[in-house]
Design a protein that fits this description.
This protein is an alpha+beta fold. It has a single domain (4-109), classed as 2-Layer Sandwich (Alpha-Beta Plaits), CATH 3.30.70.330. It has helices spanning 11-17, 32-43, 91-109, and strands spanning 4-7, 21-26, 47-55, 58-62, 65-69, 72-79.
């Protein structure tokens, strides 16, 4: 079973991605060592630090129906400078990357 479930792509998390800080949703049984090992094997990156946060379940209301959101466990992973996780970019960052690639190609052609 995988320790990393999915990236958490929020505005706050996007601000940290430029500095190499990624927010990941992790499984309940994951610990710092398993997360670091999975990042090394699957993504070929070296984490500097890993912090784990356990968020409790929340009571929510929608109209008159009360419900409960489940517990969330997430990890803040700081990577070495210059390293990035592939596939964890926001759509806006992908568009900017494409436009900068086109600009560099135009400079080379000129």
């Amino acid at each position: 079973m995988s320790a990393i479930i999915a990236p958490m792509l929020t505005e706050k998390a996007a601000l940290g991605m430029d500095k190499g800080l990624y927010v990941l949703r992790i499984s309940a049984s994951a610990n710092k060592k398993t997360i670091a090992a999975e990042l090394k094997t699957m993504h070929k990156v070296e984490p500097i630090s890993i912090r784990i946060v356990n968020l409790p379940a929340k009571e929510v209301k929608f109209k008159r129906v009360t419900g409960r959101q489940g517990e969330i466990r997430k990890a803040y992973v700081q990577l070495k400078e210059g390293q990035k996780l592939a596939g964890f970019e926001l759509p806006k960052q992908k568009e900017e990357k494409k436009s900068t690639d086109k600009q560099t190609l135009e400079k080379v052609d000129a």
